[in-house]
Amino acid sequence: MRNRSETFFVPITVPFTEIYLPKQAGLVLRPVQQILVYQRNNIARDPYFLSACLDATVLPFLTITLRDNQDRELMQDLPVWCLGANNQFAKPTGSIMHARRVLADMRIAPQKSSVRYNNAIVPPVGQNALCLEFVYAQ
Amino acid sequence: MRPIQRSQTIFLTIPAGAGQGAKVYLPDIPELRDALVEGIETYTDGELAADLTGTGLVTIAGMQGLVLNLVQESDRRAQDFPLQSLLAVNYGGIYKEFTSWKLNWQKCYLQLVTNAPAGFAVALNVFYRYASR
Protein backbone atom coordinates (compact mmCIF):
# COMPACT_ATOMS: atom_id res chain seq x y z
CA MET A 1 0.00 0.00 0.00
CA ARG A 2 1.32 3.42 -0.88
CA ASN A 3 1.85 5.98 1.82
CA ARG A 4 3.77 8.72 0.07
CA SER A 5 5.82 9.18 -3.10
CA GLU A 6 7.94 11.69 -4.93
CA THR A 7 8.61 11.74 -8.64
CA PHE A 8 11.59 13.57 -9.96
CA PHE A 9 13.40 13.91 -13.22
CA VAL A 10 17.09 13.29 -13.64
CA PRO A 11 18.48 15.44 -16.44
CA ILE A 12 20.54 13.40 -18.83
CA THR A 13 22.75 15.22 -21.29
CA VAL A 14 24.64 13.10 -23.76
CA PRO A 15 27.39 12.18 -23.66
CA PHE A 16 27.74 11.16 -20.06
CA THR A 17 28.97 8.09 -18.28
CA GLU A 18 27.76 8.68 -14.75
CA ILE A 19 25.32 11.18 -13.34
CA TYR A 20 24.33 11.60 -9.69
CA LEU A 21 20.77 11.88 -8.48
CA PRO A 22 19.57 15.29 -7.40
CA LYS A 23 19.18 15.84 -3.69
CA GLN A 24 15.51 15.39 -2.79
CA ALA A 25 14.18 16.21 0.64
CA GLY A 26 12.00 13.11 0.76
CA LEU A 27 14.84 10.76 -0.09
CA VAL A 28 17.06 12.16 2.60
CA LEU A 29 14.42 11.83 5.32
CA ARG A 30 12.45 8.69 4.46
CA PRO A 31 13.13 4.99 3.88
CA VAL A 32 12.33 3.88 0.36
CA GLN A 33 9.94 1.03 -0.23
CA GLN A 34 9.78 0.99 -4.02
CA ILE A 35 11.34 2.69 -7.03
CA LEU A 36 9.60 2.95 -10.38
CA VAL A 37 10.90 4.24 -13.68
CA TYR A 38 8.50 5.82 -16.16
CA GLN A 39 9.09 5.96 -19.89
CA ARG A 40 7.91 8.42 -22.46
CA ASN A 41 4.67 6.52 -23.00
CA ASN A 42 3.89 7.09 -19.31
CA ILE A 43 4.88 10.72 -19.16
CA ALA A 44 6.03 12.69 -22.18
CA ARG A 45 8.09 15.44 -20.59
CA ASP A 46 9.71 16.77 -17.46
CA PRO A 47 7.10 19.27 -16.24
CA TYR A 48 9.71 21.78 -15.07
CA PHE A 49 12.18 21.98 -17.91
CA LEU A 50 10.00 20.30 -20.55
CA SER A 51 12.76 17.90 -21.55
CA ALA A 52 11.44 14.83 -23.33
CA CYS A 53 11.50 11.72 -21.16
CA LEU A 54 13.47 8.71 -22.28
CA ASP A 55 11.66 6.10 -24.28
CA ALA A 56 11.95 2.32 -23.90
CA THR A 57 14.81 2.00 -26.38
CA VAL A 58 17.21 3.87 -24.12
CA LEU A 59 16.54 2.10 -20.83
CA PRO A 60 18.66 -0.99 -21.60
CA PHE A 61 21.70 1.27 -21.71
CA LEU A 62 21.31 2.51 -18.14
CA THR A 63 22.28 1.01 -14.80
CA ILE A 64 21.68 2.53 -11.38
CA THR A 65 23.67 2.27 -8.14
CA LEU A 66 22.07 3.32 -4.87
CA ARG A 67 24.27 4.17 -1.88
CA ASP A 68 23.57 5.19 1.69
CA ASN A 69 25.22 7.98 3.64
CA GLN A 70 28.08 5.70 4.62
CA ASP A 71 28.86 5.11 0.92
CA ARG A 72 27.67 1.53 1.19
CA GLU A 73 26.21 0.26 -2.05
CA LEU A 74 22.69 -0.93 -1.44
CA MET A 75 21.97 -1.77 -5.07
CA GLN A 76 24.93 -1.87 -7.42
CA ASP A 77 24.69 -1.69 -11.20
CA LEU A 78 21.02 -2.60 -11.29
CA PRO A 79 19.64 -2.43 -14.85
CA VAL A 80 17.23 0.49 -14.89
CA TRP A 81 14.91 -1.69 -16.96
CA CYS A 82 14.17 -3.71 -13.79
CA LEU A 83 12.45 -0.72 -12.25
CA GLY A 84 10.22 -0.04 -15.25
CA ALA A 85 6.63 0.59 -14.30
CA ASN A 86 5.61 -0.71 -17.71
CA ASN A 87 7.07 -4.15 -17.11
CA GLN A 88 4.12 -6.39 -17.49
CA PHE A 89 4.39 -9.92 -18.68
CA ALA A 90 2.03 -12.67 -19.62
CA LYS A 91 1.94 -15.46 -17.10
CA PRO A 92 1.58 -18.99 -18.41
CA THR A 93 -2.07 -18.82 -17.47
CA GLY A 94 -2.53 -15.89 -19.79
CA SER A 95 -3.15 -13.23 -17.17
CA ILE A 96 -0.99 -10.12 -17.14
CA MET A 97 0.91 -9.09 -14.09
CA HIS A 98 3.17 -6.20 -13.22
CA ALA A 99 6.57 -6.75 -11.75
CA ARG A 100 6.78 -4.79 -8.55
CA ARG A 101 9.94 -4.90 -6.50
CA VAL A 102 9.58 -4.15 -2.81
CA LEU A 103 12.67 -2.83 -1.09
CA ALA A 104 13.46 -3.35 2.57
CA ASP A 105 13.01 0.30 3.53
CA MET A 106 16.30 1.50 2.07
CA ARG A 107 17.76 4.75 3.32
CA ILE A 108 19.29 6.19 0.18
CA ALA A 109 21.68 9.12 -0.11
CA PRO A 110 20.69 10.60 -3.47
CA GLN A 111 23.82 12.71 -3.84
CA LYS A 112 25.92 9.53 -3.54
CA SER A 113 23.71 7.48 -5.87
CA SER A 114 24.15 7.51 -9.62
CA VAL A 115 22.92 6.41 -13.02
CA ARG A 116 25.51 5.06 -15.42
CA TYR A 117 25.10 5.21 -19.14
CA ASN A 118 26.69 2.71 -21.49
CA ASN A 119 27.41 4.98 -24.40
CA ALA A 120 27.51 2.29 -27.04
CA ILE A 121 24.57 4.11 -28.55
CA VAL A 122 23.61 7.73 -28.40
CA PRO A 123 19.93 8.43 -27.61
CA PRO A 124 18.02 10.41 -30.17
CA VAL A 125 18.38 14.11 -29.82
CA GLY A 126 16.04 15.66 -27.29
CA GLN A 127 15.56 12.65 -25.03
CA ASN A 128 17.11 13.76 -21.82
CA ALA A 129 14.99 13.21 -18.73
CA LEU A 130 14.91 10.03 -16.67
CA CYS A 131 11.73 9.89 -14.58
CA LEU A 132 12.02 8.14 -11.21
CA GLU A 133 9.30 7.73 -8.63
CA PHE A 134 10.34 6.94 -5.07
CA VAL A 135 7.65 5.40 -2.90
CA TYR A 136 8.22 5.87 0.80
CA ALA A 137 7.28 3.63 3.67
CA GLN A 138 6.52 6.63 5.91
CA MET B 1 9.09 -12.22 -2.97
CA ARG B 2 10.99 -11.04 0.04
CA PRO B 3 11.77 -7.32 0.23
CA ILE B 4 15.16 -6.62 -1.30
CA GLN B 5 17.82 -5.52 1.18
CA ARG B 6 20.77 -5.28 -1.15
CA SER B 7 21.72 -6.25 -4.67
CA GLN B 8 24.91 -6.55 -6.67
CA THR B 9 25.19 -7.21 -10.38
CA ILE B 10 28.06 -9.52 -11.37
CA PHE B 11 29.30 -9.34 -14.94
CA LEU B 12 31.10 -12.23 -16.62
CA THR B 13 32.60 -12.41 -20.08
CA ILE B 14 32.20 -15.50 -22.22
CA PRO B 15 35.17 -15.28 -24.61
CA ALA B 16 34.77 -15.65 -28.33
CA GLY B 17 35.37 -19.19 -29.43
CA ALA B 18 34.43 -20.75 -26.10
CA GLY B 19 33.42 -24.30 -26.82
CA GLN B 20 30.74 -26.61 -25.55
CA GLY B 21 31.59 -27.71 -22.03
CA ALA B 22 33.75 -24.71 -21.21
CA LYS B 23 33.43 -23.36 -17.67
CA VAL B 24 33.62 -19.70 -16.75
CA TYR B 25 34.11 -19.18 -13.04
CA LEU B 26 32.59 -16.26 -11.19
CA PRO B 27 34.89 -13.55 -9.87
CA ASP B 28 35.54 -12.83 -6.22
CA ILE B 29 33.33 -9.88 -5.23
CA PRO B 30 34.38 -8.51 -1.81
CA GLU B 31 30.87 -7.31 -0.98
CA LEU B 32 29.48 -10.80 -1.49
CA ARG B 33 31.98 -12.82 0.55
CA ASP B 34 29.81 -12.77 3.67
CA ALA B 35 26.54 -12.34 1.84
CA LEU B 36 23.50 -14.55 2.33
CA VAL B 37 22.07 -14.91 -1.14
CA GLU B 38 18.31 -14.73 -1.33
CA GLY B 39 17.84 -14.68 -5.09
CA ILE B 40 19.54 -14.27 -8.46
CA GLU B 41 18.15 -13.00 -11.73
CA THR B 42 19.63 -12.46 -15.13
CA TYR B 43 18.96 -10.46 -18.29
CA THR B 44 19.37 -10.58 -22.04
CA ASP B 45 20.41 -7.74 -24.32
CA GLY B 46 16.78 -6.71 -24.49
CA GLU B 47 16.85 -5.59 -20.86
CA LEU B 48 20.48 -4.57 -20.52
CA ALA B 49 22.41 -3.83 -23.68
CA ALA B 50 25.95 -4.32 -22.46
CA ASP B 51 28.16 -4.74 -19.44
CA LEU B 52 30.08 -1.84 -17.93
CA THR B 53 32.90 -2.18 -20.47
CA GLY B 54 30.53 -2.10 -23.42
CA THR B 55 30.59 -5.83 -24.21
CA GLY B 56 27.19 -6.81 -25.56
CA LEU B 57 25.03 -8.91 -23.30
CA VAL B 58 23.88 -12.42 -24.15
CA THR B 59 20.93 -12.82 -26.51
CA ILE B 60 17.88 -14.93 -25.81
CA ALA B 61 19.30 -17.68 -28.03
CA GLY B 62 22.66 -17.52 -26.28
CA MET B 63 20.99 -17.78 -22.88
CA GLN B 64 19.75 -21.23 -23.85
CA GLY B 65 23.34 -22.41 -24.09
CA LEU B 66 24.28 -21.75 -20.45
CA VAL B 67 23.85 -23.58 -17.15
CA LEU B 68 24.78 -22.23 -13.72
CA ASN B 69 26.42 -24.06 -10.84
CA LEU B 70 26.35 -22.50 -7.36
CA VAL B 71 28.57 -23.91 -4.61
CA GLN B 72 28.44 -23.41 -0.85
CA GLU B 73 31.65 -24.72 0.78
CA SER B 74 31.93 -27.94 -1.22
CA ASP B 75 28.20 -28.46 -1.49
CA ARG B 76 26.74 -27.72 -4.93
CA ARG B 77 23.46 -26.00 -4.05
CA ALA B 78 22.44 -25.51 -7.68
CA GLN B 79 23.71 -28.01 -10.18
CA ASP B 80 23.53 -27.31 -13.92
CA PHE B 81 20.72 -24.86 -13.41
CA PRO B 82 19.48 -23.57 -16.80
CA LEU B 83 20.39 -19.92 -16.70
CA GLN B 84 17.31 -19.09 -18.76
CA SER B 85 15.16 -20.02 -15.77
CA LEU B 86 16.55 -16.98 -13.94
CA LEU B 87 15.57 -14.61 -16.73
CA ALA B 88 13.52 -11.89 -15.12
CA VAL B 89 11.47 -11.05 -18.18
CA ASN B 90 10.17 -14.61 -18.52
CA TYR B 91 8.70 -14.75 -15.05
CA GLY B 92 6.86 -11.50 -14.67
CA GLY B 93 9.85 -9.98 -12.93
CA ILE B 94 9.59 -12.49 -10.11
CA TYR B 95 12.94 -13.82 -8.97
CA LYS B 96 13.48 -17.29 -7.58
CA GLU B 97 14.10 -17.18 -3.84
CA PHE B 98 16.89 -19.16 -2.20
CA THR B 99 17.06 -20.17 1.45
CA SER B 100 19.87 -17.69 2.23
CA TRP B 101 22.89 -19.37 0.64
CA LYS B 102 26.40 -18.33 1.65
CA LEU B 103 28.17 -19.12 -1.59
CA ASN B 104 31.81 -19.74 -2.34
CA TRP B 105 31.81 -17.48 -5.38
CA GLN B 106 35.08 -18.62 -6.89
CA LYS B 107 33.80 -22.17 -7.03
CA CYS B 108 30.61 -21.09 -8.80
CA TYR B 109 30.61 -21.20 -12.58
CA LEU B 110 28.69 -20.95 -15.81
CA GLN B 111 29.07 -23.84 -18.22
CA LEU B 112 28.39 -23.73 -21.95
CA VAL B 113 26.18 -26.41 -23.42
CA THR B 114 26.62 -25.01 -26.92
CA ASN B 115 29.54 -23.35 -28.69
CA ALA B 116 29.88 -19.58 -28.46
CA PRO B 117 31.57 -18.39 -31.63
CA ALA B 118 31.17 -14.75 -30.67
CA GLY B 119 31.95 -13.49 -27.20
CA PHE B 120 29.34 -11.91 -25.00
CA ALA B 121 28.71 -10.79 -21.43
CA VAL B 122 26.40 -12.31 -18.82
CA ALA B 123 24.88 -10.30 -15.96
CA LEU B 124 23.81 -11.94 -12.71
CA ASN B 125 21.97 -9.72 -10.28
CA VAL B 126 22.38 -11.10 -6.78
CA PHE B 127 19.85 -10.20 -4.09
CA TYR B 128 21.41 -10.62 -0.67
CA ARG B 129 21.59 -9.60 2.95
CA TYR B 130 24.20 -9.75 5.67
CA ALA B 131 23.57 -11.84 8.76
CA SER B 132 25.07 -9.38 11.19
CA ARG B 133 24.42 -5.93 9.63
Characterise this structure.
The complex is a heterodimer of chains A (138) and B (133). Chain A is mainly β and 138 residues long. Helices cover 4% and strands 38% of the residues of chain A. Chain A has one helix spanning 25-29, and strands at residues 4-11, 18-20, 32-38, 52-53, 62-67, 73-79, 88-90, 96-98, 114-117, 127-136. In chain A, the strands form three sheets. In chain A, strands 1, 3, 4 and 10 form a four-stranded mixed β-sheet that branches. In chain A, strands 2-9-5-6 form a four-stranded antiparallel β-sheet, with no helix packed on it. A two-stranded antiparallel ribbon of chain A has the order 7-8. The longest helix of chain A is centred in the first third of the chain and has 5 residues, at 25-29. Chain A starts with a strand and ends with a strand. With 133 residues, chain B is mainly beta. Helices cover 3% and strands 42% of the residues of chain B. Chain B has one helix and eight strands; from the N terminus they run βββαβββββ. In chain B, the strands form two sheets. A four-stranded antiparallel β-sheet of chain B has the order 1-8-3-6, with no helix packed on it. At the A-B interface, strand 6 of A face strand 1 and strand 8 of B. Strand 6 (73-79) of chain A pairs parallel with strand 1 (6-14) of chain B, so a sheet runs across the interface.
